[in-house]
Amino acid sequence: MRKKEKITIHDIALEVGVTASTVSRALNNHPRISATTKKMVLDAAKAINYKPNRIAAALRHGKSKLIGIIVPTINRNFFSSIVRGIEEHANALDYKVMISQSYDDYKKEVATIEALLDARVDGIMVSLGKNTHNFNHFESVLQKGIPLVFFDRTTDKLNVNQVIINDYLSAYQATNHLIEQGYRHIAHFTSHMKIRIYQERLRGYEQALLDNGINFDPRLVVESNMQLDGGQKSTHRLLDNNLGFDAIFSASDYAIVGALQELKRINVKIPQEVGLVGFSNEPFTAFTEPTLSTVDQKAIDMGQSAAALFFEMVNADQRNKPKVKKVLDANLIIRASSKRLQ
Amino acid sequence: MRKKEKITIHDIALEVGVTASTVSRALNNHPRISATTKKMVLDAAKAINYKPNRIAAALRHGKSKLIGIIVPTINRNFFSSIVRGIEEHANALDYKVMISQSYDDYKKEVATIEALLDARVDGIMVSLGKNTHNFNHFESVLQKGIPLVFFDRTTDKLNVNQVIINDYLSAYQATNHLIEQGYRHIAHFTSHMKIRIYQERLRGYEQALLDNGINFDPRLVVESNMQLDGGQKSTHRLLDNNLGFDAIFSASDYAIVGALQELKRINVKIPQEVGLVGFSNEPFTAFTEPTLSTVDQKAIDMGQSAAALFFEMVNADQRNKPKVKKVLDANLIIRASSKRLQ
DNA sequence: TATATTAGCGCAATCGATTGCATTTGCTGG
DNA sequence: CCAGCAAATGCAATCGATTGCGCTAATATA
């Protein structure tokens, strides 16, 4: 049980009777090293339990094999699943992942970018915070030529690779589904209009109404923080203004639960009197009474796509490569809260 | 918009007219460097936008300023909050955090330990996976003298620092609360008996019964995977065996939701006919109908404590320091599902 | 047989920051 | 005025792996 005598390639070199250069090349399967030597080196390495020092290697060729991820909060099934997708892809290629949370705080997001740059990550994947309306902190990433990929919460103000779902289409389908179920006065819960996903979901909602000959009533669109309490308040706003809605399509699952609670409190029957559809397929949407219809965003797919984009950037000639916007299709999950036919 | 001409301390040295040694010392606020020189160096560093290369520094003094965290899954409010607590403490001390998920897979846990060791982290914090009953993979961590802290899902088979909540007491209080509310035939949902937290929660449950003169009936203790479906199945087992229970204390929030659903399906009134208490205070416990009583584990506190323990280890003389077991108190949150008095 | 190749490996510099030891400069006291 | 000491800085090695270039010996070609 002796201490930690660091084992380096020099120890292997001594053991085998060659130099460290040869050991290094052997370990990296360099073509100019004979098979015999390679085997000896590999055997010796195993024998003395050699572990490469990634830090030294990183210093030498400037690659840390680290990918930084920034999400608003990992405490969402959606985001943690994306991370899982990224991890799967990255680990398979011997990259490690560093996860950071911005907590939707602009300053923290800026600081986190700095921190990742300090840590010399080889690439950064970001889902923007809600309060990020300025993108200067990404300029330095771009200028350094570090691969940058945005996912889900992205912006068009920056020319970067991104992976998103078809928010427009998903919202369209969700709204359309409500219309098919006979609802006609459909409200929409949304958030900051500066954020792309909310813009798109609103657009899909409007178009579905239009295509079905239903008048768009701006008073039925309510903006909130998209949390539980936001959903409650938005519901009250609708009720207080006596707008006579018979359904809600919410851009967030949390907000739709708030609505569900408030409506049940005043004995509104779901889905008979009011239909509900959320967004994100958070696990709890399957736990409520009634269960909630929602949109599944294929988070793991999104993570894998984002990682794939990153590795394309790593391997490709960065220079004049045009940026890609990968759009994934989401899945409308129909549960009890919006099914009143049959 | 030119490329990335790496800026090093040598550039500063050139600018200021000293050597790199002096620059390094100035940046690190070494006492042997004059205030004048320090100021010049700092100014020059800012002027040419110098960013220290942590990798080079890491190579030199063998510290990466990285902490590795392993949790079964980040996709639990409890774990992500712990991570948040660790992050807060660590970032304040200029340490970065690497999060990895074991997905309760023993092999993945072993591989992750290897990966973190490869990445030369300065310390590792772990919450064990459900299927980890062998701890050899931690021996190498210990032998290398790398600080190791366990939290929540720990084991006593390893002599390491740990942070846990008082599972025994929390379970005792939860059970006692149910008894106070007049329930007498209290079932308990649990999981693998090899896991400390479940042992302790069972123990607390038993003791509360004992102290209140209620007979312990082993048939009322049901083991499952502690997921939603596990809770459903466990409930059915109780019902099918006609055991006449009037309350359930579950060691998991997911399982108690499963019970809630199944009981509501057959029109059992909660809390009038059956009282329910879960464990973990997952967000959705506030969303169900009725809302669920549960135990809040003060996850952020736990994370901060774990980080604090880590930094103690970093600063202290590791050698003969006895290992610490920090026990935090949890909070019973009483909601509608267990409140039938008044 | 003499020269041209090529395979196989070693030498030494390098990545950027750190640090023990040496050196220079400046000041104090005798 | 000079030894003596402290303050401030420089020199050069070091952390471990990588890699361009060069060297040697063996094989191939003429």
Automatic annotation (TrEMBL), chains A, B:
Source taxonomy: Bacteria, Pseudomonadati, Bacteroidota, Cytophagia, Cytophagales
Transcription as UniProt keyword: yes
Keyword Transcription carried by entry: yes
Superkingdom field: Bacteria
Transmembrane annotation, as ranges: none
Keyword vocabulary terms for this entry: DNA-binding, Transcription, Transcription regulation
Annotated organism of origin: Cyclobacterium plantarum
PROSITE patterns, per the entry: HTH_LACI_1, HTH_LACI_2
Stretches assigned to the HTH lacI-type domain: 7-61
Protein name (Swiss-Prot/TrEMBL): LacI family transcriptional regulator
Record-linked PANTHER family: HTH-TYPE TRANSCRIPTIONAL REGULATOR GALS, LACI-RELATED TRANSCRIPTIONAL REPRESSOR
Cross-referenced InterPro entries: HTH_LacI, Lambda_DNA-bd_dom_sf, Peripla_BP/Lac1_sug-bd_dom, Peripla_BP_I
